[in-house]
Amino acid sequence: MSEFLTPEALSALLQVIMIDLVLAGDNAIVIGLAAAGLPKDQRAKAIVIGIIAATVLRIGFAAATTQLLQIVGLLLAGGVLLLWVCWKMWRELRANHAEEIEANEALQNRDINLDGKVAGKAPRKTFAQAAWQIVIADVSMSLDNVLAVAGAAREHPGVLVFGLILSIALMGLAASFIARLLQRHRWIAYVGLAVILYVSVEMIYRGINEVLPYLNL
Q1: Of 59, 200, 36, 209, which is closest to residue 142 (Cα–Cα)?
Q2: What angle do CA 75, 81, 84 make, to 5 degrees?
């Protein structure tokens, strides 16, 4: 418990919590958007499959990533990947919110924009198309989440374990709630984006310092 009480560990813990909140909400929005084009009877099934898949993937990536980041060069590669995640999140936050409303309607099964339909403006698709979109998004975003948590936790294994457990719990239990929270309070997403940007830059910096001695040889 004393590990969590140092200023460095508390800073890492706050970063990890913010990363988990923002990326769990972002993942839920992507799942909802993929499921929005399905008929009502298939929509809930696709969302449940997506959240279960994201939860399982986070467990799998968590088991592998902490070991892989010990390999020289992968810390730098992880930082660059997170930098791309920041760019993608920035574009999503600046884009029109119409798609996000459709995604939230699908997640909540509720007519938020009062147009008489739930996710009625989303393009129609088959269950197989929606499931494929969800799986692709889950793989990418679960890896992003685990990398960001591992980068923020740094040399604090207790914080790392807590962050990964929190990430899994949020996707399994509270993903749609967090998506609603981020829709109402956009500033939370911007703070999370700033934290992920900071973590990615720090990972790149540490990764470069890690690789430079090998390049000099």
Answers
A1: 59
A2: 145
Measure CA of the first residue to CA of the last residue in the chain; give whole Å: 42
pLDDT tens digits for 45-75?
888 888 888 888 888 887 777 676 677 777 7
Quote the tokens at residue 129: 């198309």
Angle CA 81–84–90, to nearest 5: 145
Count of CA atoms in the C-beta half-sphere (13 A) of 110? 6
Q: Whole-angstrom Cα distance, residue 81 to residue 26?
A: 16
Which of left, alpha, beta for 60 (phi over 0: left; psi -120 to 50: alpha)? alpha
Angle, helices 7-35 vs 127-153, to 10°: value is 170
Give the integer Cα–Cα distance in Å for 2 and 125: 52
Nearest to 179 by CA among 12, 35, 13, 11: 35
